[in-house]
Amino acid sequence: MDEGRVIEVKREILSDNTKAADEFRARLRDKRTLYVDVMASPGAGKTTLLLALIKQFREDAKAAGEPEPGLGVIEADLESDVDAQKIKAADVTSVELNTKGVCHVEMGMVERSYAAFGDLADGFDYLFLENIGNLVCPADFDTGAHTRVMLLSVPEGYDKVYKYPPMFGVVDALIVTKSDYLPLNPDFDMDALKRQAKVLNPNLQVFVTSARTGEGIEEVVQFFRGKREALLGK
Amino acid sequence: MDEGRVIEVKREILSDNTKAADEFRARLRDKRTLYVDVMASPGAGKTTLLLALIKQFREDAKAAGEPEPGLGVIEADLESDVDAQKIKAADVTSVELNTKGVCHVEMGMVERSYAAFGDLADGFDYLFLENIGNLVCPADFDTGAHTRVMLLSVPEGYDKVYKYPPMFGVVDALIVTKSDYLPLNPDFDMDALKRQAKVLNPNLQVFVTSARTGEGIEEVVQFFRGKREALLGK
Questions:
Q1: Contacts of B5 in chain A (CB under 8 A)
Q2: Which phi and psi angles does A210 have, rounded to 5°?
């Protein structure tokens, strides 16, 4: 295997991808849409967290007497539509992106998925990409998002920073999920996780959440609201 | 991005890899070593299961008045040596394989790791490869193993078969881990998991285990013993 050639091809692909990502980012900014890339291992609870966030966004708007924010979701999956069905059941505008076995999402896929929303996309205040369940490949590919976040579930264990450094390095926030499992995991060292993650990525924000108990969900919603306001220059 | 060209390069790489894998498989068979590839998501409990299996192998040998089986472990990780240190602490002959960010293990890496064992490898009855924490990429790359197994932890959820079909398709056994979490996961539908997995892979063996309680560990050890006997034509 000619490693030199393979790396060369990869570099070329990544550079084309980054150019397309920058254009997409600017385009969605002009549409006043904050675009969020959500990454994690399989089973970390991406779909469940998204459903909890969507519910919170809607409840907050209702409590404030404001119109519901426009929300869209791109559901990336290797093959199936299991998650896309769950999102649709919650009455959220969503598009299913099947990568056909590819372990990451790249810009061609994002652009085709976004086009599939048609005019509906004009009303999005927030667009979420639920990326492929994978802590490795997605870190390499800019998906054109304004902010990238990663989830880490308590049952996975806290010792993941040194194992998956690229992922921890590219995200703006680490969202610890399934905090209701903490009593069962006395070895889960939250302080060590935060410390290690911030050594690698000093600007990282860390949230501790449970979709089951509701812990931390409002804080994550506030984080995204703040990101959107910053994007729009408010 | 020229998808045609990239697929062509990938096919070439895979074909070279498979040839090397077949040679390696034959070589380890001649050495009477059963070589097992262990795959799973990050945090599914690969290292913990390996430690439990090793302990069981040793205890069984002691109880039977037999010599301890020769055990070796190749610990693949993107960057760190977190898992390799745990395996070393259990006094197991191990080699650390850093893929430097690559999301799968391929034969060049296996061969170099195996060579690093030196003469020690001659005494292996079993060699385990703890593959990269990833349910996608490793499925594509034959690692030269005689048997491949995957782990799925209860907290990840049971609905993974349709999401990661290539992985479920290439393994001989599905080892469900962290079964002590089942009481906390009333939605985990074990029957549905088994049914879906066996539709995709009719010969799949399924084990339900907990390294914490010891459930199922002896059954997995028996499975590997049976595989080794079959390999040696006993």
A1: 9
A2: -145, 120
What mean pLDDT comes out for the span B199-224? 97
| pTM attached to this predicted model | 0.86
| Share of residues in chain A with pLDDT > 90 (%) | 82
From the candidates B48, B97, B105, B156, which should be mutated to test the interface with A, based on the most A CB atoms within 10 A? Answer: B156
What mean pLDDT is predicted for residues A195-204?
A: 95
A228 touching chain B per CB within 8 A: no
Residue recorded with tokens 């490795």: A136
Distance from C-alpha of B44 to C-alpha of B214, rounded to nearest angstrom:
16
pLDDT score, position A13: 72
User: How many contacts (CB atoms, under 8 Å) link A and B?
Assistant: 124
Report the C-alpha gap between A152 and A38 in whole angstroms. Answer: 11
With CA atoms as reference, the chain B residue closest to A166 would be B101
Q: What percent of chain B has pLDDT over 90?
A: 82
Instruction: Give A64-105 pLDDT, tens digit per residue.
Output: 999 999 999 999 998 888 888 999 899 999 999 998 888 899
SS in 3 state form for A191-207?
HHHHHHHHHHCCCCEEE
CATH class, domain B31-231, is alpha beta
CATH superfamily placement of domain A3-231: P-loop containing nucleotide triphosphate hydrolases (3.40.50.300)
CB contact A134 to B (< 8 Å): yes
Residue B66 burial (CB count, 10 A): 9
Element at A74 (helix H, strand E): strand A71-77
Q: Give A60: exposed, middle or buried? Use CB within 10 Å, 0-12, 13-18, 19+.
A: middle
In this structure, the dihedral spanned by the alpha carbons of residues B223, B224, B225 and B229, taken in order and rounded to 10 degrees, is: 100
What separation in angstroms does the CA of B146 have from each of B22, B99, B113?
Answer: 10, 22, 17
Separation between Cα atoms, residue B90 and residue A125, nearest integer Å: 53
CA nearest to B104, candidates B127, B78, B75, B67: B78
Give the Cα separation of A215 and A226 in Å (integer). 19
Contacts of A83 in chain B (CB under 8 A): 163
